[in-house]
Amino acid sequence: MNIETALERVRTGPQGPETAAFFDFDGTIVHGFSGLHFFRDRLLSGNVGATELAAAMLNGMRGTETEDDFDRFAATVFKAWRGHSEQELYDLGNRLFMSTIAGHLYPEAWQLVGAHQNAGHTVVIASSASRYQIQACSDALGVDHVLYTPLEVRDGVLTGRVDGRSLWRSGKARAARAFMDTHGIDSDTSYSYSNGGEDAGFLAETANPTATNPDRTLQRIALEKGWPILRFRPRGTPGAKELVRTAAAYGGLIGSVWTGLGLGLLNGSRKVALESILNLGPEVSLALAGIDVRVVGQANAWATRPAVFIFNHQSQLDPMILAKVLRKDFTGVAKQEIAHDPLFGPLLRFGGVTFVDRGNTERAVAALGPVVETLREGTSVVIAPEGTRSLTPAIGGFKKGAFRIAIEAGVPIVPIVIRNSGEMLWKHSTLLRSGTVDVAVLDPIDVGDWSPDDLGDHIAEVEDLYRHTLGRWPVAP
To answer: For position 395, what pLDDT does the model report?
Structure first.
């Protein structure tokens, strides 16, 4: 089964909160084992003693064949958290998610979670990890229900002991069953997803189990039972190939910029320089990176110009993608910080980009004033209405600036929806991955009859348009 089949199964199946979708965490929602990041953080900060390190290594070498093995391993690991407050661990979980774990999120898992949410299903993350390791991700994904291994807490401070039984193997299966009984869930219409053989019982609690990225044990079980198998693209650690591709892509971009500047100088035209850079730079750089851009609705990029083009910001790769789609006669609005970027700062300034200080509303509004004149003079403008890049592909709340500019200039809004750019270049990464970025240029939106009184409602409709497009990607005609 591929991801599109899995998504279609959810869309066409039973709807409503009586149907649940249970997701394992490590290996299913995120690539790898999130606990390693917590352990590495303590190790690098000097908070892991020789006894703790030796015990963890010994239990790791023994393996976790039985539930007693896992409980012994969990007791060793969680003992290290004794004396720390819950808030400290929540803060650590948030920091590690933002700096590392979010970059290991499977986009396919996010799509599945979103499909279940759009179907009105009750979505649950179930893991043998502690809540502190999962909470930041569940918040980012908008998942309200989390099943986890409980840790003993007294007066807000951890004792270092597990409070009852861990959610491993039968423990996770029992927790899923108890949740269904408590919340009135129909197991006959519900779904479950996991990657490990130890979760066979957990998967069997619902009528729609799916082995996602299965290990050998689970793959054998799935084949025997006829369960569908779903594989996500491995994340892994970028290697030499990604390093070479990245260097080539940046080199190609720099070469294209100098070529464009040279052509502009020969012709005595800044416009020639800009158009040469915009046409040559993205083509060369993306090709060298091994990144293909697949566009649906390309005609909408030219249907009504000038326009305010808005896009969902996922990656530093987005400006290259937008340049490839829009080609010419546009400029942009960007955050003030990027003006100091040694590579993109000078290039964006040469392209007439307006830089906005997001920390000062008064200055930001003043900076956007000339943008209206730019539109009236015939040059389109590109803006990310979310204001900042998200750690997940989920759509954040849109700010009003882009829409007010369009209303004042009397030009339409054209939504550009980008899918997968964060997978090619994650927010905190510097290395490019090869692959395909999908782009949908949607129909222009006439804002001529919008008023300040109903602006919020219109913006909410546009946000929903983005969520719907990401949840059910349009097919090229």
So the answer is: 84
